[in-house]
TrEMBL record, chain A:
Transmembrane region(s): none
Domain ABC transporter: 2-232
Molecular-function GO terms, alphabetical: ATP binding; ATP hydrolysis activity; transmembrane transporter activity
Membership in a protein family: Belongs to the ABC transporter superfamily. Macrolide exporter (TC 3.A.1.122) family.
CDD domains for this protein: ABC_MJ0796_LolCDE_FtsE
Cited SUPFAM superfamilies: P-loop containing nucleoside triphosphate hydrolases
Keywords: ATP-binding, Nucleotide-binding, Translocase, Transport
Protein name: ABC transporter related
Pfam families: ABC_tran
Organism (species): Hymenobacter roseosalivarius DSM 11622
PROSITE patterns: ABC_TRANSPORTER_1, ABC_TRANSPORTER_2
GO cellular component: membrane protein complex
InterPro entries in the record: AAA+_ATPase, ABC_transporter-like_ATP-bd, ABC_transporter-like_CS, MacB-like_ATP-bd, P-loop_NTPase
UniProtKB/TrEMBL annotation, chain B:
One Pfam family, short name: MacB_PCD
Protein location: Cell membrane
GO cellular component, one term: plasma membrane
Domain ABC3 transporter permease C-terminal: 265-384, 724-838
Main location: membrane
Bilayer topology term: Multi-pass membrane protein
Organism: Hymenobacter roseosalivarius DSM 11622
Membrane-spanning parts: 262-286, 307-336, 356-379, 400-421, 427-445, 480-499, 720-744, 765-796, 808-828
Keywords linked to the UniProt accession: Cell membrane, Membrane, Transmembrane, Transmembrane helix
PANTHER family the UniProt entry points to: INNER MEMBRANE PROTEIN, MEMBRANE COMPONENT OF PREDICTED ABC SUPERFAMILY METABOLITE UPTAKE TRANSPORTER
Designated name of the protein: ABC3 transporter permease protein domain-containing protein
Length: 234, 847
């Protein structure tokens, strides 16, 4: 589902090249759950951005659902994202002038799906916000906004979901609810999940954990317990 | 289709929270469009009215005119042209009201027949016209007199008026004569007397400046152009001009088209200023929308889809702005005829010009989209990575070639529009170039300020000053935008103001110093001695005294004027070929002349006079030194050779001439003399005029003081119209200022609230804002004024040829007003800081 080979990213900074990610490689199968952990500035968000086709690598390659992203233009990558990818962000990234329902509708309307409103409404109900569809983001709490964000992420039935610190802006109770929902939805849809977090407890719920430090992978471990649960539940 | 549906829906939804702001920045184009629609609509109405009323303008189907009685050999032919005809002899003369001893220069029209055939000759009482027409053949001495003239001397019908040696009873007050605007009546009010009595006035003498006219009325449907076609050559030969309704339509239409086109350019500048406002407001708007665009990109929207969402918003708002502007413009268009009533020869019928409205709306949407495209293009390059990293600063990888294309389109549009208005590529390019230069200089000043403040930042100054100054170059600053928009408004207004001063100063020269202020005209050779003595007896100086001979050009280097007129390739100006030349003769140049080439006028040893030409005029006639010119001196041919050229300072109050002959040639020719003198006061003026009208009734006295006053009135009216248009630019500048300040409010309020949270007092925050905006306003005003002074100087030096002295007082006032206004708007905008709780802002709940 996702194959990363020798991924390197460097920026020109103050006349020197600053390498933030160096020769990272891994491969994920469909329905895998995967966490990237590491301290601030270790390069984990950069890695997520590259995997999701939000940025271009300086070297190395990314294959997403068999499509090599490296040579695609930004607009071609946008089409790939719309087709195969879902996103969850730390700060929710809902469009402030759209209602909750309209926010969920965006990926469907971008695809030109007819009757998207019903799907979006079902998804909102699934995340427990069926009655809040006409509220604007500012009228929702942080947890509610992240749940709308979840509904939006699953709206286009993505093959792979990227989540960047999904609980980073939430309190402990709300976090737990959102995380539960995230894994439930993920399981139901059979989506591959890539999670960036420094919350080790959250990471522990995935089947595989990659640790990054200074732009390089320092460990890549399979979480036996989680993997077993996943195997059983599938 | 689904793509468009998505864009449409997104544009609609996304605009929800920004509609009032979007409306504000499209409001910047409202006034520009209003001015355009107003002027264009008025122009359309004027053109239609001229079309409808052209016949009334002429008052007849055909007018033949000449400066001498029509050639006797033509009389029979001309009589055969039509039965219904009127004859007129017109000339300027002093007229006197015996009752109050009032004397004034008037246009005397000695008329017989049924003229005017079209249009209404409005008199009081209404029966006066019939009385006047009957009086002529009966030899009764009656006159119709212009209302302005009667009003000046408190005279009324029943009183008498003396014209030359005859006294006439005034039978009516003339309110309106077809073909004469209220304006020309105020310069030279008219007195109508019967044609049959004109000889008895003793005013027609050899050399007098007299116009002889015959008016014809033909059966309806007659093709007048076709009718006189066979006569054209003979009329030309006899120096008889013909004027038909069709010709008058063309001429009047053309001259007013020029006026409306000029005003259109002024309106266009207002529109462009508004466009700058749109571009800058959209650019601030786009900055706010970057986060939303990044999310859309992340979710799979293409770059162009994102651009189109915001372009659609702008286009719709542009449409709304244009419709509002067109509605306002229609109102102006209905109002304008009232403002310019006095200038126009026709009564402008008022109707909504739908073509002007449509043109305004299309132009409005087009410019809004074109100028909004500049900032909107950057949306294409917003990286979806911003969703992960909010602090990502640069999305652009190198310069965007599409921006160059849009800049090119804008330049093309400006030049194209200017061309459409002026139909002159040189002018259009000059207009676009001048505008580009102005924008460039103002942008340069803004950018320069930004860099200067940054480079030489006064670190030792107080906190308030440092913060205020730093605002000029920190991210999201408005330095460039405000210097350009305020500067351009100030520039336009100041230039128009200085220009008016320049034009007035040109005529004011005559009222100061020892310059002549009274011109005695039409002095016959035999009267020369007597008039000179009359002047001296009254203790007045003879400042200049010159003979004037009138003639026409009949051939250049053996090619007849008629032949040259037909030859379009010759490049010789038709006006220069057809005009009447008033020349003088002397062997030397005078103080207002400088020898350019050749020699001053002299009589060649071969007996052929070597004449001196005005340097600029040789270009119009395409002649050079050594060329042979044949003049027709009232019937007698006279061969001359161009012996020299000279430059003439036309702004000096002197009798200046295009052509000067040497002594010893024109002395026997029919001629009159002009004498220039200076009267110290109105009492002396009245005394001289009275004495003149008694002893030399044919001599005209032109009171330059009166002319000056009239000119001043005209200029005041014209400048009112121009200022009215400039007001649109200024108001647009103000709107741009308000909208750009308001659009950036969110940013400002957040910063100020942060400062407040950190302990800054209200006073400190207000002072910081004051420093920033007052500085911006002052700099923009100074830059605009500097440009205006340069423009006025250049116009003075190269176009009007007068020394330009800027009026410091009004300019200073304008600078202070602009600075104060900018600061006040900035401060008003910061009100929020004082009313909103900091927490609300810090939580990002301010919209």
């Amino acid at each position: 589902m996702l194959k990363v080979e020798n991924l390197t990213k460097s920026y020109a900074s103050g006349g020197r090249d600053l390498t933030v990610l160096e020769a990272v490689s891994f491969e994920l199968q469909a329905q895998d759950t995967f966490a990237i952990v590491g301290p601030s500035g270790s390069g984990k968000t950069t890695l997520l951005g590259l995997c999701a086709g939000l940025d271009r690598a300086s070297a190395g390659s990314v294959w997403l659902n068999g499509i090599q992203l490296d040579d695609l233009s930004e607009d071609q990558r946008a089409a790939v994202r719309n087709e195969h990818v879902g996103f969850i962000f730390q700060n929710f990234q809902l469009l402030p002038s759209l209602t909750a329902l309209e926010n969920v509708l965006v990926p469907l309307e971008l695809r030109g799906v007819r009757g998207g409103t019903r799907t979006a409404q079902e998804l909102l109900e699934r995340v427990g916000l069926g009655g809040r569809g006409h509220h604007y983001p500012t009228q929702l709490s942080g947890g509610e906004q992240q749940r709308v964000s979840l509904a939006r992420a699953f709206a286009n039935r993505p093959k792979i979901l990227f989540a960047d610190e999904p609980t980073g802006n939430l309190d402990a109770d709300t976090s737990a609810t959102v995380v539960e929902l995230l894994f439930e939805l993920n399981r139901e849809a059979g989506t591959t999940l890539v999670l960036v977090t420094h919350d080790l407890e959250l990471a522990a719920r995935t089947q595989r954990i990659v640790r990054i430090k200074g732009g390089s992978v320092v460990s890549d471990t399979v979480n036996q317990e989680s993997a077993e649960i996943a195997r059983l539940s599938s | 289709m689904s793509n468009f549906l998505f864009i449409w829906r997104m544009a609609w939804r996304d605009s929800r929270r920004s509609r009032s702001r979007l409306l504000l920045f499209t409001s910047a184009i409202v006034l520009g469009i209003a001015a355009l629609v107003g002027i264009n609509g008025f122009g359309d109405n004027l053109a239609r009215s001229i079309d409808e009323q052209a016949r009334e303008l002429v008052g007849a189907d055909l007018v033949l005119s000449a400066s001498q009685p029509f050639d006797s050999t033509l009389q029979t032919t001309l009589r055969r042209l039509g039965e219904r005809r009127s004859q007129e002899v017109a000339f300027a003369s002093l007229v006197q009201f015996p009752k109050g001893q009032g004397v004034r220069l008037a246009q005397v029209r000695a008329l017989t027949g049924g003229f005017p055939y079209y249009g209404e000759w409005l008199t009081e009482p209404g029966s006066a016209v019939a009385a006047f027409r009957e009086a002529g053949p009966a030899g009764q001495r009656v006159a119709l007199v212009d209302d302005a003239l009667l009003a000046q001397f408190a005279a009324r019908p029943g009183d008498s008026i003396k014209v030359g040696e005859l006294t006439f009873r005034i039978v009516g007050r003339v309110r309106k004569t077809p073909g004469q605007s209220g304006f020309s009546a105020s310069v030279a009010p008219t007195v109508f007397i019967p044609r049959e009595l004109v000889e008895q006035t003793g005013l027609l003498q050899r050399g007098s400046r007299v116009q002889y006219r015959t008016y014809y009325q033909f059966a309806p449907g007659t093709n007048v152009d076709q009718l006189i076609q066979p006569l054209t050559a003979r009329l030309d030969q006899a120096n008889i001009d013909s004027d038909t309704v069709a010709e008058r339509k063309r001429q009047t239409g053309r001259s007013f088209t020029n006026v409306t086109r000029f005003l259109n350019l002024v309106a266009f500048v207002a529109l462009l200023l508004g466009c700058v406002g749109v571009a800058s407001a959209v650019s601030l708007y786009v900055r706010e929308k970057v986060a939303a665009v990044a999310v859309l990109r992340c979710l799979g929207a293409s770059g162009w889809q994102a651009v189109l969402i915001y372009l659609l918003q702008t286009a719709l708002m542009g449409l709304l702005g244009a419709i509002l502007g067109a509605a306002l413009g229609t109102g102006i268009q209905l109002l304008l005829p009232k403002v310019v009533e006095g200038f126009l020869p026709v009564t402008v019928s008022v109707a909504i010009s739908w073509s002007a409205v449509a043109e305004g709306i299309v132009t409005g949407v087009f410019v809004a989209v074109l100028f909004a495209l500049l900032p909107l293009l950057s949306i294409r390059r917003v990286s979806p990575l911003r969703t992960l990293r909010a602090s990502l600063e640069e999305d652009t990888a190198g310069p965007d070639p599409l921006r160059g294309v849009v800049y090119g389109l804008i330049l093309l549009f400006i030049t194209g529009f200017a061309y459409l208005q002026t139909r002159d590529w040189k002018l259009a390019l000059g207009f676009a170039g001048g505008l580009l230069l102005t924008f460039g200089v103002l942008a340069g000043v803004g950018e320069g300020l930004r860099r200067l403040v940054r480079r030489y930042f006064p670190s030792s100054w107080s906190y308030v000053w440092r913060q205020g100054l730093a605002n000029l170059y920190r991210p999201n600053n408005q330095t460039l935008l405000l210097t350009v928009s305020i500067g351009l408004g100030v520039f336009l207004l100041a230039t128009l103001y200085l220009l008016q001063g320049l034009l007035l100063s040109q005529v004011e020269i005559s009222s100061t110093g020892g310059q002549p202020n009274l011109v005695l005209f039409d002095i016959q050779s035999a009267q020369r001695e007597g008039v000179t003595q009359l002047v001296k007896r009254n203790g007045l100086p003879v400042l200049q005294e010159v003979p004037v001979v009138t003639m026409r050009l009949s051939a250049i280097n053996g090619r007849s004027a008629a032949e040259l007129k037909k030859d379009t390739a010759s490049g010789v100006s038709k006006g220069a070929l057809g005009r009447e030349y008033r020349v003088t003769y002397r062997d030397s140049l005078i103080s207002s002349e400088t020898l350019e080439a050749g020699r001053p006028p002299f009589l060649g040893s071969d007996g052929i006079p070597r004449v001196s030409f005005d340097d600029g005029f040789t270009e119009r006639l395409k002649i050079k030194i050594g060329d042979t010119l044949t003049f027709n001196v009232q019937g007698a041919p006279l061969v001359t050779i161009v012996g020299g050229t000279r430059t003439v300072d036309w702004s000096r109050v002197q009798t200046n001439f295009l052509v000067v002959f040497p002594n010893g040639v024109l002395e026997p020719a029919p001629q009159f003399h002009v004498l220039l003198t200076r009267v110290p006061d109105n009492a002396t003026l009245a005394a001289v005029q009275r004495e003149l009208v008694t002893n030399f009734p044919n001599v005209s006295a032109i009171d330059l003081g009166l002319i000056l006053q009239t000119l001043d009135e005209i200029l005041t009216k014209i400048s009112f119209v121009i200022r009215f248009m400039a007001l649109f630019s200024m108001a647009t500048g103000l709107l741009v200022l308000v909208s750009s300040v308001v659009v950036s409010r969110y940013q400002r309020v957040r910063e100020s609230v942060l400062l407040r949270t950190l302990g800054a007092s209200r006073g400190q925050i207000l002072r910081i804002t004051l420093v920033e905006y007052a500085l911006l306003g002052l700099l923009a005003a100074v830059a605009g004024l500097g440009l205006a002074v340069m423009a006025a100087w250049a116009l003075g030096a190269f176009v009007f040829e007068v020394a330009f002295v800027p009026q410091i007082g009004p300019l200073l006032l304008l600078a202070i007003l602009t600075t104060a206004l900018t600061a006040i708007i900035g401060l008003l905008n910061s009100r929020d800081v004082l009313t909103r709780p900091p927490l609300e802002v810090l939580r990002g709940e301010v919209s």
